[in-house]
Design brief:
The chain has helices at residues 2-11, 13-16, 51-58, 61-70, 101-114, 146-161, and strands at residues 20-25, 31-36, 74-85, 93-98, 116-126, 133-145. By secondary structure, it is α+β, with helices and mostly antiparallel strands. The strands form two sheets. Strands 1-2-4 form a three-stranded antiparallel β-sheet. Strands 3-6-5 form a three-stranded antiparallel β-sheet. The longest helix has 16 residues, at 146-161. The protein is globular, with a radius of gyration of 18 Å.
Length: 162
């Protein structure tokens, strides 16, 4: 699964355009690492990494990772995102995406009780030593019980048709 995740992303035209690459996926998919190399394809007019490249490098990972960790009984969508630039990036950037067993258990328990929830995941883009933060991406992710979500959509369509 981890090789499929890694190479699936890295070969996908959607992710290749970000200029980032997934460099490590742990066997259980609980931890993923990316590298966004500074290149002629992602520098802006002042010679630093374009903010859109930073966001695009991070954007799909937390949701897709969570989809794989939770399984087919759940609907997972990105709901909102916020990006905070901390300093110009004139070097390669790195980010890690981690879910813990406790987070996954908590999500499943809350969805079982409430049918749908939102979580917030924050990812930072750093230098190679992980000491300097260049950018912070805060993602709000919607998670629902799949059967509940289908019924909710069906009800919305019914209301809209009337």
């Amino acid at each position: 699964m981890n090789l499929l995740f890694k190479y699936g992303f890295n070969l996908s035209p959607m992710y290749r355009r970000t200029t980032a690459r997934i460099v490590a996926v742990h066997p259980d998919l609980m931890h993923i690492e990316i590298k966004l190399a500074k290149s002629y394809r992602n520098v802006n007019i002042v010679g630093t990494i374009f903010g859109g490249s930073m966001f695009a490098a991070v954007d799909p990972i937390p949701m897709t990772q969570l989809m794989q960790l939770l399984g087919d009984q759940y609907v997972v969508w990105d709901k909102a995102a916020q990006i905070n630039f901390k300093r110009p990036a004139s070097q390669d950037l790195y980010a890690s995406f981690t879910y813990t067993n406790e987070e996954i258990t908590d999500i499943k328990e809350k969805v079982a009780q409430q049918q749908e929830i939102e979580i917030v995941k924050t990812t930072v883009l750093t230098n190679a030593s992980r000491q300097t933060i260049f950018c912070e991406v805060i993602k709000t992710i919607y998670i629902a019980n799949k059967s509940y979500y289908k019924q909710k959509i069906k009800q919305k369509k019914k209301v809209q048709a009337n």
